[in-house]
Amino acid sequence: MSLRIGRLAVTVLLILVAAAALVVPPAPAAEDVKIALVAPLSGRWARQGQLKKMGADMAIEEINSQGGIKALGGAKIVLREADAGDSVEKAVSAAQRVLTREKISAGIGSWLSSFTLGVTEVAERLQVPWLTLSYADSITERGFKYTFQTSPVSSVQAEQALELVTELAKKNNRPIKKAAIVGDNTAATVFFFKPLREKLLAAKGIELVVDEVWTPPLADATAIAQKLRATQPDIVFYGATNFPDSIQVLQKVKEFSVKAPIQGVGAWLVTPEYVKTLGKEMLDSIQTVVATHPMKGQEEIVKRFTQRTGEPFMTQDPLCTYGHVWLIKEAIEQAKSADPKAIRDALAKIDVTSGPAATSFYPNRIKFDERGRRVGATPLIVQWQGGEPFTVVPTAVATRPVAWHK
Amino acid sequence: MVVAELAQYVATGLLVGGVYALMSIGLALIFGVMRVVNFAQGDFMMLGMYLTYFYALAGVDPLLGALLTIPPFFVLGWIVHRGLLARVTGGGDPQRQMDAQLILTLGLSLVITNATTMILTPTPRGIRTAYATQAFTVGPILLNEARSYAFAMALVLAAALWLFLTRTDAGRALRAAADDPEAASYQGIDVRAMHGLAFGAGIALVAAAGGLLATYYPIEPSVAVNFIVLMFVAVVLGGLGSIPGAFVGGLVIGLVQSLTLLALPFQLQNTGVFIVFLLVLYLRPQGLFGRRARTV
Amino acid sequence: MPSHARSWLAIAAVVAFGLVLALVLQERYHHRVLTLVFLWAAMGLAWNIISGYAGQISFGHQVFFGIGAYVTVLLVVKLALTPWIGMGIAVAVAVLAALLIGLPTFRLAGIYFGLATLAYPLIFRIVMDWLGYQEVAIPMMRERPAWFMQFSEPRSFDLLALGVLAATLVLSRAIETSRLGYRLRAVKENEQAAEAMGVDAFRAKMAAYVLSAAPAAVVGAVYIHAILFIVTPDAVFGLLVISQTLVVSLVGGIGTLWGPLIGAAIMVPVSEVLDSTVGDRLPGIQGVVYGAALMLIMLGAPEGLYWRVRQAVRARAERRAAPARAVTLPPMDTTPASAPTSTVLLEVRDVWKAFIGLQALSEVSFDVREREILGVIGPNGAGKTTLFNVLNGFLLPDRGTIRFRGETVTGLRPSGLCRRGLGRTFQVVRTFPRLSVLENVMVGAFVGERAVGRARAIAGDALSRVGLGDRADAFPGGLTTLELRLMELARCLATAPRLVLLDEPLAGLSTDGVDVMIAMIRRVRAGGVTVVIIEHTMQALLRLADRLLVLDQGRRLAEGAPAEVTRNPVVVEAYLGKRWLARMGTPAC
């Protein structure tokens, strides 16, 4: 009996391994330029990885249908995606794998800042330029030469976001006197809250009345809602990156009829699943700070995106990878080479203010400083209106006027 | 005011604990009867949430939907036991086979989570219910409606299980098989069938718990990671294999989570749970409701 | 069982093979997989020390892995201290943590212990987040990379990981062949029996825990530098670490150093192959296939691949081997006459013991004199076995004192009593089923002997004395009841006891068997050992005992010479019954 099962097990295993070996990636034409995308495509963050891939795919299709890379005689771009899974080990393995198997010209990824930290280490050692949307300051504090960060880093984001928000509140005759900090202690949130708590709020004369930070998963949000109701802050800085936690908080806020405006810190708050789970009424006027979001003038891109993917709208994650692929294309054009070192040098010198790459980030200029941070990078404020998130600040690129919380 | 606030903390804790309790009794039943530590328990809960979600799409109220997960998941549990677990646990010596079953259920958990992610996509879903954001007002205390319904249903299901175990022949046979499989088989009890019954019931209960959870908690393939550790803590806290123990264990965890906030920073909430867990085990190594193992 | 030299040779071969792979492989990614195999094998081996050898399944072993990682990295970040030194500090911290965790947690047994250990890494994970160590990246040291364990040549990491693996293999092998190794296996197989044979189970487990914490910390430190380059609480204290450890160990088979090695050599590459082929094309499928593979392996080899293969090899060998032999009775020497002395060896005074709702022993007092055979009789439930359990330390009396060789021993653990010369056997023989007969007896021999070789000699001698010399290599499962009882007696004698407590040693034996056993017990006494024996068979006890102690409902009913006691009307009333009285007209011996 058990012998039979044993033999069966071995047979099935052999078949599985053989099947695995047979699924070989199709061989690209010789002159193709290969770009790596390392992002979580399975596991608990698979959704984010899929969104990133959608943006990259769209950019590549556009580039290739417009004649490819002109400097390389119309060479096509192909994407090599590697699944970062749900652990740093898998993410770094994926990077190692994809970067050593083939000649990769440049890479993009990996969403979670801990993944990005590990993956860029590999890219640095193998000398492949790497573009990331991750915010963490530490990514570009290690003196790496091959890492380029297009998003404003967390510490700067907090300062800029506070500036934008206080300005906005003043304009709406609701100056901010009392603020609340509510969120989890994942890296992205922590690095945003830290400067707020330590100096920025005090510098603006704003009193911090609630400071509640939890370790995900959140068991229950009653205590948070109670504190918010008791203190009535003028603004709630809100960072709940774990979707179920966020849903619980927003439901409780409604249950306790808390009236404070919610100012999120990150793009996790403007995904389509929020509408499906909470309904558009509950979301209205909730706003958040993001690294980028479709801006005025990008309507065409958004339309193409929603048509090809079936997503109701476009958000930071696909827009970033879309811009990154276009940026790599620009760099290759300037370097006139698919060699990663040449592309890295081109990226270090690049200064573009138009085209799909530049318009995907605010302000519409891409130039990196010696650390690899984008010069002048500023976050946007996005607001839920009628079940869709629109860019509302800065007004120059806003797609809707802001509707301040009543 | 202070009293009212404390009462709110206690009420919140108990409501949160109610669903932990229902999640945990399924696990306790499986461990108590089969000595199986089922790592895939949380994944069956996740599947129960999805089934309730699909029921809701078809117009079934999720509270009813949660109950309706019981029959299909009982059958699923029975099949999983027959096809997989019975092959490594058998009816005989439970101690020796522990190891294989750990990896077996770990593998099962990997298969379920990943297959669900692939088939149903990783995008979170939610059942929108009015009661998720409404509360009953009892004096100064707010009791969330969804959690109150879930708590009541958890009580009913736990009571039903308890009645089944103590008042029916099948239930008594199940307990006999749990206490001493060898003696039970001499009395003509089909131990393997009893294990199938226990596994099926254990899976059905956790699926129903998932259904109740889904009335206020979003559904995603990886949702189990948020609960699986707490389930085990509840079961061990109550005394491994004790059904009332697991129920109380679940309530205790909810209470501790809530009351910890009065003493520790929010971030350390779950350390409160783990510290209480360790303290209880040091003081009562057999858990709150467990029987002390015979020494000789 | 392979000889020592063969095992060391096999370890050397494994390391040499690893070395060859490290030198031959070209692609960086392959080196990474190789490093992962070495590291997870080492982690599995570390876990195997406490969970395999000692049988204490731990779900929280990543706590030491995480301590190794965090201590080393924080020392680099905060003090720019090289990880080569940091690792040593990390090991010290891990050992300290093991002591602090083990001290309270080994109060728990079995699955309770396992699940309790899970709480520690989860607490650490939360606390690390709270302290603000969400993501600690290792700063790149471009000046002295090797000093900071930052190699650009992937082979260096292979060799480093291989070194860790080799050291863990050597440690495991050393434990397997040491007194501690035998004791751990005894504790795993039957903790009660091990305690009765002088093994301080708590100390043995603590030793194993500390020894398994140290390599886990080293693996954690190297893992961060070679594999992750960054440390996050979830990556080192999270559940993925322990599930990977469980997978490599249980798939390979636990309780042997080859198991985790086989498990890691198969499962790590399988996982990577799946990731790099199907996984990147159809994300998620690698998890499904990997999970299915785990399930299939466990269905086919529930105890792990190593044991499955070994079992198959054994079965083939045994088919060729000769069939079982007939039982040889021990040769009978002429027994020198021996009489009890008047010295009191064991003094029991006013012992009480109650269980919930049952007074098991009340006011029990008696003496055992040197070199006598004292029989304890009484109806079922009279408290005979409870008395033994109190005497050898399994149970603590509620009241009363026990003095052995002039020393008050009340409250000592069985292992302590055993070391003072008090041995016992059990009503139902308690063997260590996965140890050979000789190894079973060696566990007893280790009471007085630290060296394995000499313990083996003592055990062999004890076996020949009971006539089991040629069954030394058999396993308890293949023994007859008589042989099992003799083996248990030999194991008890190997502890060099002054007094032995024999709990129904004649139960279940044939008439011939009873004769053999009685002769054996007489010889034990002739060798200067005092015997206290519980027996149901009155006939046999009358042949054997110098004096009888009668218990009834936990009280001492009578004490004295057999003839005297059996005529005592109270005893006859309470225990023997009137029909016996009629038959007692003629003395039995």
> Which percent bin holds the helix content of chain C?
55-70%
Sheet with the most strands, sense and barrel status of chain B: 2 strands, antiparallel
Radius of gyration of chain C: 29 Å
Can you identify the CATH class of chain B?
Answer: Mainly Alpha
CATH-derived topology of chain B: ABC transporter involved in vitamin B12 uptake, BtuC
Order of SSEs of chain B:
HHHHHEEHHHHHHH
Show unreliable segments of chain C.
585-589
Count of helix runs of chain B? 12
Mean pLDDT of chain B: 90
Largest interface: A-C, 59 and 51 residues
Number of spatially distinct domains of chain C: 3
Shape of chain B: globular
Query: Tally the helices of chain C: what do you get?
Result: 23
Q: Unreliable stretches of chain B, pLDDT < 50, 5 or more residues?
A: none
Summing up helix and strand content along with how strands pair, one would put the structural category of chain C as alpha/beta
Numbering strands along the chain, what is their spatial order in the largest sheet of chain B? 1-2
Strand composition percent of chain B? under 5%
- Strand sequence of the main sheet of chain C, in spatial order? 8-9-10-5-11-12
Instruction: Tell me the distance between the termini of chain B.
Output: 55 Å
Biggest sheet features of chain C: 6 strands, mixed
Describe what this molecule looks like in 3D.
The complex is a heterotrimer of chains A (406), B (296) and C (589). Chain A is built from 14 helices and twelve strands. In chain A, helix 2 crosses helix 12 and helix 12 packs across helix 13. About 1% of the residues of chain A have low confidence. Chain A is globular. Chain A has two domains: 200 residues, Rossmann fold, CATH 3.40.50; 153 residues, Response regulator (Rossmann fold), CATH 3.40.50.2300. A seven-stranded mixed beta sheet of chain A has the order 7-6-8-9-10-11-12, with helices on both faces. In chain A, strands 2-1-3-4-5 form a five-stranded parallel beta sheet, sandwiched between helices. Helices cover 45% and strands 16% of the residues of chain A. Chain B has a single domain, classed as ABC transporter involved in vitamin B12 uptake, BtuC. Helices cover 71% and strands 3% of the residues of chain B. Chain B has a two-stranded antiparallel ribbon with strand order 1-2. The N and C termini of chain B lie far apart (55 Å). In chain C, 59% of the residues lie in helices and 11% in strands. Chain C has 23 helices and twelve strands. Chains in contact: A-B, A-C, B-C. At the B-C interface, helix 4, helix 5, helix 10 and helix 12 of B face helix 5, helix 11 and helix 13 of C.
